[in-house]
């Protein structure tokens, strides 16, 4: 919009025509509709089903449940964005459907950050953290969530922990060309995005 537009003509400041309300078929009128969809929608435990995994942030204000045995896939991401935003050499992310997840308090207590836009307004993709202790909880994409398995209660015995490591074991590494440390685990290592970049060996050389 041109700078010389009279302020009274700014569409943001004009009252919205009433007709937009009567024709809307969206029960939430498009406003914060995402709060009424998984993973933020609070469903009954009967609708949600058996809880397979629980996760919680450091301060305990944010907790979530997963009703799926294992992730669709899991990855270590070595990209610069993950290094900076996690304060860690790489990110560990496990992919679930949005329906597989439910936050106990819905969207309450969560903060959002869209790193592409550098915006804290909710939009996808976004990074989700606890508003209080700032623990990173997940990256929400348009269709899936990438949760950080460090938050999941994996039990206390060696056997329980072995089992959880097996369930959340990564399929591959991505952005391995940006790695801070080398991980000689024999898993596929992509220089950038998986299936869209070159495969590297454990030492980072092209295969
Ligand atoms: Zn917290
Ligand atoms: Zn990354």
Describe the protein in words.
With 207 residues, the chain is α+β, with helices and mostly antiparallel strands. It has one domain: Beta Complex (Metal Binding Protein, Guanine Nucleotide Exchange Factor, Chain A), CATH 2.170.150. The chain has four helices and twelve strands. The chain has helices at 19-23, 45-48, 80-86, 158-167, and strands at 53-56, 63-66, 73-77, 91-97, 101-103, 110-113, 126-130, 136-140, 144-147, 172-174, 189-190, 199-200. A seven-stranded mixed β-sheet has the order 6-7-8-9-4-3-10. The model is unreliable at 1-24 (pLDDT under 50). Bound molecules: zinc ion (2 copies). One zinc ion binds at residues 57-59, 61-62, 130, 132-133, 135. One zinc ion is lined by residues 57-59, 61-62, 130, 132-133, 135.
Low-confidence stretches: 1-24
Task: Give the overall average pLDDT.
Answer: 89
Name the hetero compounds present.
zinc ion
- Tell me which oligomeric state these chains represent: single chain
Region (Disordered): 1-33
Keywords: Lyase, Metal-binding, Zinc
Protein name: CENP-V/GFA domain-containing protein
Domain CENP-V/GFA: 53-191
What's this model, at a glance?
By secondary structure, the protein is an alpha+beta fold.
Topology, element by element:
Blueprint: H1 19-23, H2 45-48, E1 53-56, E2 63-66, E3 73-77, H3 80-86, E4 91-97, E5 101-103, E6 110-113, E7 126-130, E8 136-140, E9 144-147, H4 158-167, E10 172-174, E11 189-190, E12 199-200
Parallel strand pairs: 3-10
Antiparallel strand pairs: 1-2, 2-5, 3-4, 4-9, 6-7, 7-8, 8-9, 11-12
The chain binds zinc ion (2 copies).
Residues 57-59, 61-62, 130, 132-133, 135 line the site of one zinc ion.
